[in-house]
């Protein structure tokens, strides 16, 4: 453990380790990208390459979390109340406070679950270096049309969902764990006040995007996982984590059942569906807010 080192030195060493680890795994990933480009879409060979790519990404992430746990000494308290398997398909919703949440989630699920996938904007496929990696990992790229675009061209209505369904079809034969940060941005007290959020520790969930993802993925999902992340000693950014300021993280995972109607309805065109979906998601968010407060109180009493 290197926590005895001054924060700046520890952060520098950890940053270099993570950079070297990324370069190490980047080589086989880009070789895999070349092979994947040469295989036809939908073929068994491409599915096998996709699985290999996901495995490589998972090893990269696992090494990062190993460094953080064993060299910095971050304590992870994992409270997982869910039956998760490496070959399953899951939809995950989580609160979001810092970029460190990604590494916390990797640590929480480890190798017991598939590697994460994210819904990304279509334009991000052109991002240098990362765009080809996201494509190779079969991250679903979403092409969303604004209300004004749909008003000008009504034929676009519903095309967003169909585009996303086709993107999700690329990993229909693969394990997957699709992650959504429902607040859409990292939580801060300033954002909470600006939103006039009714929650003490959360921003308002973006129900539309989540309904869109749920409908696109469909009932082949094994289950929905509700993840709550709490930093009992306060939230820090990535540098704060790498320089040893984060000591403990609590992660609680609940397995939820999605009502059948939410797989088949239309959030955009059905007002009744939209109302029921918002109420259902709002209740999940109330419970999450109460859970965060309970965990904070639990750790405050231990000090």
From TrEMBL:
PANTHER family: 1-ACYLGLYCEROL-3-PHOSPHATE ACYLTRANSFERASE-RELATED, LYSOCARDIOLIPIN ACYLTRANSFERASE 1
Protein name per the record: Phospholipid/glycerol acyltransferase domain-containing protein
Molecular function (Gene Ontology), one example: acyltransferase activity
Ranges annotated as spanning the membrane: none
Upper classification of the organism: Bacteria, Pseudomonadati, Pseudomonadota, Gammaproteobacteria, Nevskiales
Pfam families (alphabetical): Acyltransferase
Every Phospholipid/glycerol acyltransferase domain range: 90-232
